[in-house]
Every structure is written in structure tokens, then in C-alpha cells.
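Duplicate of #3305? Posting structure anyway:
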């Protein structure tokens, strides 16, 4: 049994990209390990510092999403309630060079997406550029060993491990532990528009809260093969969004292989494959809707607050050991 930590920024409802990239793994892991899930509001604020109410609303949205999916055998907590985190972050900041933070490929890509023509050094808040350091605090504050995440989070785990090694060697201790990512088979889902990534900001994803009508309309709008005009035409399954989704969500791989062969040969229509995909997605989404309809906000709060208390206690113990290693263990009582 290991300690597992994972987290999401509360910037919108969870979508199928999250589901296939990490949530599905978590459903399984929660029964095998001690699992924490962090709602990373402090991290979300590095980007949405001017919209705190938006972040707050999404905390409850995400917490409800977790419970609706069936993540009920783990501890869910809110990052900003853990007082040890900013303190750990502060100490870790001394162990990372400015050059190293700006070299983080995920941070670089995110800045590029946002900064338009301005150079990112001018437009990005320090808090944003340094969020991988605070993520190292997230990971170490519960002594996490396994981190189920999407592929874009690998640089964060690498950076956290660098900090752990540096801390332990600098302060001659073994108090911090290195962690390991767990990637799912489909670690990145493409958007319904064919864009490389399904993301809320690109407005190209299917949310877990979408109604059956919205799901249907989104699947029907998916790009297939522009040369597949008549049903009898041979079709291309590569770069075909519907097949990409079938690959990610259809468990009957034999039938999928047969569908692909049929589509390539000609004779399998776009509407047929889309209807098939809608059925498969609804098999996942319908039980989630059903569970959600039974959840009360007061229950969500009680569950999350209990998780906050538990994570806070663990983080405090880790912080104590960290400070001890740094000779900062003052007894002022
Ligand atoms: N950076 C992660 C994301 O954007 C969220 C996150 C914050 C996280 N802290 C974490 C993930 C700790 C794993 C572990 O998805």
C-alpha cells in the first residue's frame, strides 16, 4: 500500500479528457492505496488571481464531480486550507534556480498559450512561473509516492524529485521521498475539434455534466475524414476524431479493429460510428449523472472538510520534520 496524491485545478467542470487521463485510474487506485485528491485552488489562483469567486465556485463543482464519478474511498481536500504548503514552498524556492523554473516545458507551453505577443517574463506573475515549486510542496506534504496524472504533468514530478534530492542532500536528511507518475494508456485526449488537447479553455471538450443532448450534438459535430463523402467510400481512421475517441473509450478492442477495417474498406458510415460512440460515452456518463442527482451540497462540504483536516495534520507533521532538518525547530512555548 502506497500513498497516492493527485490533483486538479478548479477552473471548470471535469471533462472526458480528465476522465480518461487520470480519473479512471484513480477509481481503481483508491481501493488499493491510501489516496489523497487535492483541489488545487492556490495553483488555480496563480492564473485566475483576479477571479477568486470563480475559483471558489469551481471547487464545489469539482468536488461534486469526484463524488459523482465514485471517488468515495479517498481523502479530498482543498489546497488553500493546508497552512504548511506556502511555508514548504518558501523553503523549496531556495533550491531551484530561476533558469530551471523557466525551462519547465509545461510552464513554457502554458505561458506561450496565454502571453500572445508579449514576452512571458513581462506578463506572467511570479506565482505562476513558480507553481511547479508549490506543486513539489503538494506532493511532499503528504509524502506521496505515486501520482496519477496526464502526460503534461511529468515535468512537474521530475522537478519535485529534483527538489527532494536537493533538500535531502543539502540538509543531510532523508525526510522527503521521491515520487513516481502513473500514466494512463490514453494520457492525452484530443479535442472534439481535432485539436491536440481537449481543454476547457479551447472549448472543445465533453464535460461530465453535459446532458445526453449536448453529448449527442458534440459527437455529431466531430471531424472524421473529409474525403469520406459517401458511405461506400474508403475512409481514413488516422486523424479521425471519432476513431480517436473510440480508441480511448471502447473496451471491445476486437470489435473496434473490425470497425476500423470496415471503415477503411468502405461501407461504414460516419453517422453509424458516431452513434456507436454516443452509446459508449453514455454508458460512462449515465451512471455519473445518476449518482450526481443524489448528492447534497452539505454532504460534499462535510466530506471535503474532513479530508482537509486529515491532510492538514499530515502536512503539519511533514513541515515539522522539514524544519527540524533545516535547524528551524524553535520551541517558543
Ligand atoms: N498541476 C496539476 C494540473 O494542472 C494540478 C495539481 C496541483 C497536481 N498539485 C498537484 C497534480 C499535485 C498532482 C499532484 O492538472
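Output from current build:
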Amino acid at each position: 500500500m502506497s500513498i497516492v496524491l493527485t490533483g486538479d485545478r478548479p477552473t471548470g467542470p471535469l471533462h472526458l479528457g480528465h476522465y480518461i487521463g487520470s480519473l479512471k485510474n484513480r477509481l481503481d487506485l483508491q481501493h488499493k492505496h491510501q489516496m489523497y485528491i487535492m483541489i488545487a485552488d492556490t495553483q488555480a489562483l496563480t492564473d485566475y488571481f483576479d477571479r477568486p469567486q470563480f475559483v471558489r465556485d469551481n471547487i464545489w463543482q469539482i468536488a461534486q464531480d469526484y463524488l459523482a464519478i465514485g471517488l468515495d474511498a479517498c481523502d479530498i481536500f482543498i489546497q488553500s486550507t493546508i497552512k504548511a504548503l506556502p511555508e514548504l514552498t518558501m523553503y523549496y524556492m531556495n533550491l531551484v534556480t530561476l533558469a530551471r523554473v523557466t525551462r519547465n516545458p509545461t510552464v513554457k507551453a502554458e505561458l506561450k498559450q496565454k502571453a500572445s505577443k508579449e514576452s512571458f517574463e513581462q506578463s506572467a506573475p511570479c506565482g505562476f512561473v513558480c507553481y511547479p515549486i508549490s506543486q513539489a510542496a503538494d506532493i511532499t506534504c503528504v509524502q506521496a509516492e505515486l501520482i496519477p496524472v496526464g502526460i503534461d504533468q511529468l515535468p512537474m514530478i521530475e522537478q519535485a524529485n529534483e527538489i527532494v534530492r536537493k533538500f535531502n542532500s543539502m540538509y543531510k536528511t532523508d525526510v522527503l521521498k521521491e515520487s513516481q507518475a502513473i500514466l494512463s494508456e490514453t494520457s492525452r485526449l484530443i479535442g472534439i475539434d481535432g485539436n491536440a488537447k481537449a481543454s476547457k479553455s479551447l472549448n472543445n471538450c465533453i464535460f461530465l455534466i453535459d446532458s445526453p443532448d449536448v453529448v449527442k450534438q458534440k459527437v455529431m459535430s466531430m471531424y472524421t475524414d473529409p474525403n469520406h463523402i459517401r458511405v461506400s467510400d474508403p475512409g481514413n481512421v488516422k486523424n479521425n476524431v471519432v476513431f480517436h475517441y473510440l480508441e480511448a473509450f471502447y473496451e471491445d478492442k476486437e470489435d473496434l479493429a473490425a470497425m476500423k477495417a470496415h471503415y477503411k474498406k468502405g461501407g461504414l458510415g460516419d453517422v453509424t460510428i458516431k452513434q456507436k460512440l454516443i452509446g459508449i460515452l453514455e454508458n460512462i456518463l449515465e451512471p455519473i449523472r445518476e449518482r450526481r442527482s443524489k448528492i447534497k451540497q452539505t454532504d460534499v462540504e462535510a466530506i471535503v472538510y474532513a479530508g482537509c483536516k486529515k491532510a492538514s495534520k499530515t502536512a503539519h507533521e511533514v513541515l515539522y520534520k522539514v524544519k527540524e532538518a533545516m535547524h528551524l525547530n524553535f520551541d517558543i512555548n
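Confirmed duplicate; merging threads. The chain has 15 helices and five strands. Residues 126 and 144 are 26 Å apart (CA to CA).
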